[in-house]
């Protein structure tokens, strides 16, 4: 079987669709290389002294793990010098990181969740890196946080790397979703799945059930109906999965369908949800839509939301189209 590398895939996409400028190609290759470095650190685990807490807190009020900090540094260092970026933003940084003066400034903005699934690091369960790429649309010199406040539908590319039994890179540049598996012997990313599609229907849901008592009525209604099984209104039995690494849960959904919910709940009534719009929801929503699925916040399409601040949070419902539609209709009916 002929093997296609990430580089070849990007070159061919450029030839066929002509929408991957050289700077964007460089950016994706650099992010993929950074993910390889993160994968090496993740794989070393205790041997590399990378497990455990860093004893610092991030802007989200979460205690940072050593790997959260290491992954953030790897991504910044890898992306600073290439001349493809104007600035970066991350779950683990209070404010944006502008490319230093000693390097040329490019036209792209890179956003990332350097290490997703922090609570799974120390227990050897799949974790990942999520990234999103925007274009700096204003022509003004310099770059500010405002340049990042674009709706997700303007993403030029998005993807994630999952550090699991296999290390895989999943990518969209707006022409479908492709999956690459890291060949550890050769060190290259090999295309192993192209034109990924999510089935419209599913019998599998993903939600943190321990929050049930805090949910809003539409979410409760939806899950109650699923739990009622064959005898209930859905007329079929449902299965549940919750890895607690969004990357792993989304990867399963891209692979065999399903629906993922991290809804608003009463624990923190003033926050729209737990997950971050720019580092988690937008890139995942872009991938899911590109694979034929849907992503909403219960009321509207995630990719249409115009962010008002960098670390904005959002409710997330994504995955198999008919299921997401059902959850969204329940919310709309309750409004
Ligand atoms: P992060 O590790 O980047 O902070 O994100 C964790 C997120 C997401 O990966 C996952 O779906 C969710 O938090 C898990 O939350 P619970 O611990 O509430 O299940
Ligand atoms: Mn975190
Ligand atoms: Mn995350
Ligand atoms: Mn994270």
TrEMBL record:
Residues 198-331 form the Fructose-1-6-bisphosphatase class 1 C-terminal domain. Mg(2+) 2 binds at residues 113, 116, 280. It comes from the Bacteria. One of its GO terms (molecular function) is magnesium ion binding. Pathway: Carbohydrate biosynthesis. The keyword tRNA processing does not apply. It catalyses: beta-D-fructose 1,6-bisphosphate + H2O = beta-D-fructose 6-phosphate + phosphate. Residues 5-193 form the Fructose-1-6-bisphosphatase class I N-terminal domain. Its EC number is 3.1.3.11. Its cofactor is Mg(2+). Keywords: Carbohydrate metabolism, Cytoplasm, Hydrolase, Magnesium, Metal-binding. GO terms for biological process: fructose 1,6-bisphosphate metabolic process; fructose 6-phosphate metabolic process; fructose metabolic process; gluconeogenesis; sucrose biosynthetic process. Mg(2+) 1 binds at residues 91, 113, 115. Coiled coil: none annotated. One of its GO terms (cellular component) is cytosol. Substrate binds at residues 116-119, 208, 274. HAMAP family: FBPase_class1. This is Fructose-1,6-bisphosphatase class 1. The lineage of its organism: Bacteria, Pseudomonadati, Pseudomonadota, Betaproteobacteria, Burkholderiales.
